[in-house]
Amino acid sequence: MSDLHPAASPAIETAVQNVLSEARADLEALVRIPSIWADPAHRDDTHRSAAAVAELARAEGADAVEVVSAGEGAPAVIARWPAPPGAPTVLLYAHHDVQPTGGDEKWTSPPFQPTERDGRLYGRGAADDKAGVMTHLSVLRAFRSLEGGLPVGVTLFIEGEEESGSPTLPALLAEHREKLAADVIVIADSSNPATDVPALTTSLRGLVDCTVEVSMLERPAHSGVYGGALGDALTALCRLLATLHDDKGRVAIPGLVHNDSSAPDLDEATFRSDAGVLDGVELIGTGTLPERLWQQPAASVLGIDAPKVSEVANVLLPSARAVVSLRLAPGQDPLDAQRALHEHLQTHAPWGATVTVTPGMVGAPFALDPVGAVYDTARRTFAAAYGNETVEVGIGGSIPFIAEFARTFPGAAVLVTGVGDPASRWHGIDESLHLDMFRRAVLAEALLLTELGGRS
């Protein structure tokens, strides 16, 4: 290998290889738990998932393991391994809650029955983010077999409500600040551009969402008798939602931050293939793909309450509602964006309709300048594990934890690493983890901790 991709330590490579089979079994066990905290029907499952993670941490010799929550928030796990004398403490973050399935019947194999196909493990949470949980635990397991044990202190923090916007995270951080303090924070909840190309994520968009309800009538009215003089709420809602974008698909909400990007443009054909875009469908927005995906806001309608086509009646609907999601560019104040979204919806009500907006989750965007010894170490060790140069990327998604932790611990270096790739289908049907990339991710983190502890 070149100096850019130095050879990994044979001892560490062997230790990692030796734990992968057990790690795969533990990952599958976690995937079988439907920890959908956003669904009240799965609250007990999420507590069961946290208990399973806590038990895995105890098995790896943690000095202290707690399952904690703030108020009515989701259960999180905090486990700690003390630092050797003079060594830094590294906080390892992931989350054990998962997204809803989007319809079990749409999956090729059941979403909570982990299934391997063509070198990928399919299942909800297999990539996002139970793979992150098991990346951290696998590294800890590997070091138990190595002479000298862990080269750094480790605090494992596994959140339980990231997919719900982390609403109680600020309270959780305030309550457990001393336990979570660290010199370096590693967040295994992002993605790589390819299974053999490691990435450090340097920017993430923020997020606000809301439920908007449009009301037109006191009760349903006959569409033939009253239609033509009266509008219906579903049509009014569609007209309102259409105002979120201009004719080119750019977000039309005033007052939002839009940034430029110096990143090289992405290959459009590859992007369309990765996203599953149908032939003839045009991309929306303007600017380069990195600008549209990482540095500009994006508005989406995630769901509409409406009668099923098979159950319609010939009536004008009195009310209709939808969930609107707004991703925020780095540098955007999320509360300002929330006000802008609400004002836009209120002021664009068609035909005098009554519009009620109920706020939802709020998450701040994040950007960092990856300069310094910790980032240099990460680039070098990840290159050694993956065999290719480490790249810097933005991500259009949101991880509220990162901005909250950066505010709480401003002196800590933050590394956002990947356990997914473009084929992982995070949040989608047939989510999956590339198993050989998982091996590389574990090796990369083990090499990182080794060098941070001064044992290279």
Task: Give a quick rundown of the structure.
This protein has 456 residues and is of the alpha+beta class. Helices cover 33% and strands 23% of the residues.
Any key phrases for this structure?
456 residues, Aminopeptidase, Alpha-Beta Plaits, 4-stranded antiparallel sheet, 23% strand, elongated
Structure, explained:
The protein is of the alpha+beta class. It folds into two domains: 10-204 and 365-452, Zn peptidases (Aminopeptidase, 3-Layer(aba) Sandwich); 206-260 and 285-363, 2-Layer Sandwich (Alpha-Beta Plaits). It has helices spanning 10-31, 43-59, 130-144, 169-175, 177-180, 223-226, 233-242, 268-275, 289-295, 334-347, 373-386, 400-408, 435-452; strands at residues 64-68, 76-81, 89-95, 115-117, 120-122, 153-159, 184-191, 199-204, 206-215, 221-222, 298-305, 315-316, 319-328, 354-363, 366-367, 391-395, 413-420, 432-434. The strands form five sheets. A six-stranded mixed sheet has the order 1-2-6-3-7-17. Strands 11-13-9-14 form a four-stranded antiparallel sheet. Strands 4-5-18 form a three-stranded antiparallel sheet. A hairpin with a 2-residue loop joins strand 4 and strand 5 (120-122). Helix 1 crosses helix 13, helix 3 packs across helix 13 and helix 11 (373-386) runs antiparallel to helix 13. It starts with 9 loop residues before the first helix and ends with a helix. The model has no long low-confidence stretch (mean pLDDT 94).
